[in-house]
Amino acid sequence: MNRILRTLPLFVALFLFSAVASVSTGWAAEQKNLILATTTSTQDSGLLDVLIPIFEKQTGYFVKTISVGSGQAMKMGEKGEADVLLVHSPDAEKKFMADGFGVNRKLVMHNDFIVLGPANDPARIRGAMTAADAIKAIARANALWLSRGDNSGTHAKEKGLFKAAGINPEGQKWFQQTGLGMGETLNVAAEKKGYLLADRGTYLALNKKAHLGLNIMVQGEPKLLNIYHVIEVNPAKWPKVNNAGARAFADFMVSKKTQEIISTFGKKEFGSPLFFPDAGKKPESLGL
Fold it and tell me: PBP domain spans which residues (predicted)?
């Protein structure tokens, strides 16, 4: 009996040590997981398929990528459901920051939006000077327009272009909303032979895999610039977010090596990169 009593403290100590070690190990594993909420274009274009493995190898973090529209990504940030965001909706981003949901917003890269349409171009918009002019012609012709309708950065840009054209498309038979991401909406437009707004990177990447039968109708307008920022979710609002991981990812995205990868991504396949690196540039140089 005395022997059992003498050994009992040892068993208790071992049990407590095991429990603490288990909790510590679980916490460490949790801190190595990083939730990235990002726009669908960075995923659909294939860029993240290149960058994420490099980041994980360099840092030891495990990234869970949630590919949604920029609006949905920021909603996740507002709720503390993501650690870091990679988005392309500047006006919504500014509000996100002003409301205190994000910290350390950094300019990463840009590409541009393009207006696409079927080869037979029923609205005769090919070569229009502006996207607004093209939209007016599409409305006059009652030609099918496919909208993502998902509160994404692309959807926000589209709404701005319709407003500039003085067109309210809601309720019009020629205006259909998919509620889908960029890649899926491109496929719907290809199937239905409709017009749409898309980012160049996703269009080129998907068109190479399976010819979509959609041609570039309008491009090159300054209003069609598509700018991406990385934003850390504010740990003061959500203490459980992985702020160290978010900062590591943000630093990785604007690092010299990553910016060099961005500058060449897609160049071999398409003759031009799908994105252009912008880290360190003044926002004013991009019209922000």
Answer: 28-256
